[in-house]
Design goal:
Distance between the termini: 38 Å
Radius of gyration: 18 Å
Helix content: 25-40%
Number of strands: 8
Order of helices and strands: HHHHEEEEHEHEHEHEH
Number of helices: 9
């Protein structure tokens, strides 16, 4: 990525790395935002919009921070939203996209750095979003799991929580881990392609 030493990418996803070099970190985050905006053109996201608008999907819990689901109703971003950033001292919130052209990720009120509103390694996830996810799971009739890393705690326990509440669970793409074991139906195939195919059948 232009302007970023590839050896520094990992550190920019840590809280310590951001604090030590916020301007270098923003060079990396700007690339993430650009990729997120490009992702919106992918058929997968168009399918999500259609299924939500048609009432097939009531809510979405995502670990993605790229903002590609912006505009979709009832999206729970458990790790935050890259398209928003916040002053590290006064807490004012800004639209990341509006700041990219100038490259000035500084709060105009107190001149402190702005931090993207995402959970970096070394931080706790937003408590409000986690509570929303847990409540939503408990109120659901059906949970479809797409592309969830079975090692990514505590998110990987949400399918287990769903089963505890008697929710039917469909897992797409995983085999031989606890996510697959707790599924009522397990579809071993590419999650993105399967989702797009289902959307076309329902359309």
């Amino acid at each position: 990525m232009e302007g970023v030493n590839q050896g520094d990418v990992g550190k920019y996803l840590t809280l310590e790395g951001f604090r030590s070099d916020p301007w270098g970190a923003w060079n990396y985050y700007k690339g993430m935002v650009q990729r997120a905006l490009e992702l919106r053109e992918h058929p997968f996201y168009a399918c999500i919009h259609r299924l939500v608008d048609a009432g097939y999907i009531k809510s979405i819990i995502t670990v993605c921070v790229d903002g590609a689901l912006a505009g979709v109703r009832n999206v729970i971003q458990v790790y935050g939203d890259l398209l928003k950033c916040k002053c590290v001292t006064c807490g004012r919130v800004y639209d990341t996209r509006k700041l990219i052209p100038s490259g000035r990720f500084i709060c105009p009120y107190d001149k402190a750095p702005l931090k993207p509103m995402i959970t970096l390694y070394g931080e706790s996830m937003p408590e409000r979003e986690w509570i929303r996810a847990v409540v939503e799971i408990g109120c659901s009739e059906l949970l479809i799991v797409l592309g969830l890393d079975p090692c990514e705690a505590p998110i990987n326990m949400l399918p287990v929580l769903a089963k505890y509440h008697g929710v039917k669970v469909i897992v797409v793409g995983y085999e031989g881990n606890h996510i697959g074991y707790c599924a009522d139906h397990h579809i071993i195939s590419d999650p993105i392609r399967t989702f797009i195919d289902v959307c076309r059948e329902l359309a």
